[in-house]
Amino acid sequence: MRRISPAQFELLVERELRKAGFEPGRSRRLEGGHPRADGEDAYVLRLAVPLTAGGARHSAVVECRCQDASPGAAEVHALAQTASSSASHALLFFTATGVSADARSEAEKAGVALLRVIDGRSAFQAYITGERAPAWLPEHAAQLLTRAADGGMAWRLLGDGSATALLVSPDR
């Protein structure tokens, strides 16, 4: 998958929130998204996003990570700690890589929704067998980590009705 720029990541977050059933307001960069001094194109971007769904207003803190290394529990915990002082209804952790088992465990404990960015055309072809992806498909899509019926974990594409799954919020 081709690297995703900070601006593309912001657009992806907005589009995926709409797919989930939210009407996102204008996002505000809290930190990051700047190129690194060493020339590497890795970055961490944190956004505050006002949301509306079903007439209710919510707020989200969204962390977007575009790095080669998969994030672990420490990164998820840092988002939860930073956001615990805010009045956020949702903590969303988007990553351009997979996540470690300890990150999944920490996210479940802290009420952080984990989402991974995937190639949009590959996702379409995986879910619609035998058909070629149409040209209008977005280059990137996001999958939410959810608990499967058998108790295991599974990645699934966001769609209508996903909003409640993103509003996970434990005792923080």
Plain-language structure description:
The chain is of the alpha+beta class and 172 residues long. It has one domain: Trna Endonuclease, Chain: A, domain 1 (3-Layer(aba) Sandwich). It contains five helices and eight strands; from the N terminus they run αββββαβαβαββα. The chain starts with 5 loop residues before the first helix and ends in a 6-residue tail after the last helix.
- CATH architecture name: 3-Layer(aba) Sandwich
Total E-strand runs: 8
Q: How many domains in all?
A: 1
Q: Indicate the radius of gyration in whole angstroms.
A: 16 Å
Q: What top-tier CATH class fits best?
A: Alpha Beta
Low-confidence stretches: none
Question: Structural class, from secondary structure content?
Answer: alpha+beta
- Overall mean pLDDT: 83
CATH topology: Trna Endonuclease, Chain: A, domain 1
Shape field: globular
Query: Beta-strand percentage?
Result: 25-35%
- Terminal Cα span: 35 Å
Biggest sheet, in brief?
Answer: 8 strands, mixed
* Approximate helicity band: 25-40%
How many separate helices?
Answer: 5
Q: List SSEs in N-to-C order.
A: HEEEEHEHEHEEH
Walk me through the topology.
Elements: H1 6-20, E1 23-24, E2 28-32, E3 43-53, E4 56-66, H2 73-83, E5 90-95, H3 101-110, E6 112-119, H4 120-127, E7 140-147, E8 153-157, H5 163-166
Parallel strand pairs: 4-5, 5-6
Antiparallel strand pairs: 1-3, 2-3, 3-4, 6-7, 7-8
